[in-house]
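User: I'll paste a sequence; please echo it back and then give the predicted structure.

Assistant: Echoing your sequence first, then the prediction.
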Amino acid sequence: MYDAGLKNRREVLGADYVDNSIGNADSFNSEFQELVTRYCWGEVWSREGLTRRERSLINLGMISALNRPHELKLHVKGALNNGLTRDDIKEVLLQVMIYCGVPAAVDSFRVAREVLGHDNDR
């Protein structure tokens, strides 16, 4: 499961980010990195019940609701890698606004725009 997780993690989040996270692990967090790779990215992200695209949609909503901007930034990039569009991401964040509140959506839109960049289309 570790190898499957490493493959999934690299494909979604980017090899540079993942290799840096694992390469910078020390005695304090190396077990954490191994568990995240094996359990989260191997056991769960390898399941056939949802596509990567669907998992990204769900993750964006949950991470926004939990107000985890660092993880949101990472998963917006991953969502793009999994085929979501700017409009898909916008729709998720609008849904977050309704069910989790405007403050959660304000921060989430800000973080997403950092990743997506600003477009001049209005």
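The chain has two domains: 2-44, 52-116. The chain has seven helices and no strands.
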